[in-house]
Amino acid sequence: MAIAPEPKNLLVVDGDERALRRTHEMLRAHSGAWDMFFARTADEALRVLARHRMDVVVADMYLPERDGLALFDIVRQKYPNSLRIMFCASTERDAILKTPMLLDQTISKHCGPKRFQKAIERAAVVHRRLADPNLAAVVARFEAMSTVHEHYFELQRLLSWPETPLDQVAAVIARDVTLTAKILQVVNSAFFGLPHHIESVRHAVAYLGMRTVRALVLVAGVFSLFTRKQAETFAIHELYAHSIAVGLLAGAIARMAAPEPALADHAVIAGLLYDIAKVLIIANLPEESEAIYLRSDARLPAHLAERDRLGVNHAEVGGYLLGVWGFSDAVVDAASFHHAPSQAAQDRFSVLTAVHVADVLDNEQRRQIAGRAGPTLEQAYLHSIGCSEQVDRWRAAVGAEV
Ligand SMILES: [Fe+2]
């Protein structure tokens, strides 16, 4: 990461005096690396910013008078090179999901110095992506995020807090018949090979895990944005079925290829979310979407048609959004590079491999959304990570499950 020459300037903004002192203590280990500045209000922070160039601004969501998001809106416009990191409790994530342009990363106040450093590194990566004016222009038009039903934000809030009791999450999901059906359908799919049919939401959540349920809820929320007419025009049900299938296929491939269970978990999450930006583009940019997905040459894959029209494709936009929303690097990389995995410069099987292969295999099965040319396997990439021999085995194994 190269934000600026050492030492870097860091501004922490927090209205709570005690919390400010705790942050100071936490960062003292880095006092050689940071020139630290502190402010209690947004206005005080702006006065500091007017006098000193800041590489990183970390602010609490709640500040007296102007809140953290309002401060970041000004920082974004006046000091676009400063990284913006929000101290964020789980209860505030709903506001942040709706404002992907305003900040580069969220972090808990009690994260510890190592995670704090990691958050800054990730913020730098996310921030660099937004330097692409085409990506910034597309994300700035994503108003539909703010119309995702409050119900989904309530669940995101619960699910992003690790100590939320399972029963509480299950109870909220059970209030939504459609979401309940979707979660039960996923957990009972052949991919998990469960000996018994799961009929209770609580068991489904326990089996899938909070992180996977969080991804499923996000997918369900984004896919609920469409009117019936839009859904028919763009074959949204096909896209939804494809996202679920790629999540399940990617998990199955990861379980065959790698022994670590965490990798398979991340593969399911990445497979569910890797195309989420395509859905958001359709929901928010209807005119361009008609030109891209319905009227452009059907031999041209969607990600190339998007680049022609928008200067950026859904993989790049999706990687950016998932980074802001705090998904793991593995999930972000899978979304960012699923159409060109060799660009990720990885040398072994990864979540990205599982998603890239799952996307192609599912497209082979359903040939394809609106008759458009499907993605193809990047053979040189698969060869370079030693997996080209295994694809036929994966195809045969998952083909039986689809
Ligand atoms: Fe894609």
Labels describing this entry:
2 domains, binds fe (ii) ion, alpha/beta, 22 helices, 402 residues, Hypothetical protein af1432, globular, Rossmann fold
How can the largest sheet be summarized? 5 strands, parallel
Broad CATH class of the largest domain: Mainly Alpha
Shape: globular
Separate helix tally: 22
Compute the separation of the termini in Å. 42 Å
Number of strands: 5
Bound molecules: fe (ii) ion
- The stretches of 5 or more residues where confidence is low (pLDDT under 50) are 1-5
Structural class: alpha/beta
Cα radius of gyration in angstroms:
22 Å
The CATH topology annotation of the largest domain reads as: Hypothetical protein af1432
What proportion strand?
Answer: 5-15%
The main sheet orders its strands as 2-1-3-4-5
Number of domains: 2
Tell me about this structure.
The chain is an alpha/beta fold. It folds into two domains: 8-131, Rossmann fold; 147-399, Hypothetical protein af1432 (Orthogonal Bundle). It contains 22 helices and five strands. It has helices spanning 17-27, 42-51, 68-78, 93-97, 113-130, 133-140, 150-159, 166-174, 177-187, 201-208, 210-223, 228-233, 236-257, 261-273, 276-284, 286-295, 302-310, 314-324, 329-337, 351-366, 379-384, 391-399; strands at 8-13, 34-39, 56-60, 83-87, 105-107. The protein has a five-stranded parallel β-sheet with strand order 2-1-3-4-5, sandwiched between helices. Helix 13 (236-257) crosses helix 20 (351-366). The protein is globular, with a radius of gyration of 22 Å. 43% of the residues are buried. Residues 1-5 have low confidence and may be disordered. Fe (ii) ion (FE2) is lined by residues 275, 303, 314-315, 338-339.
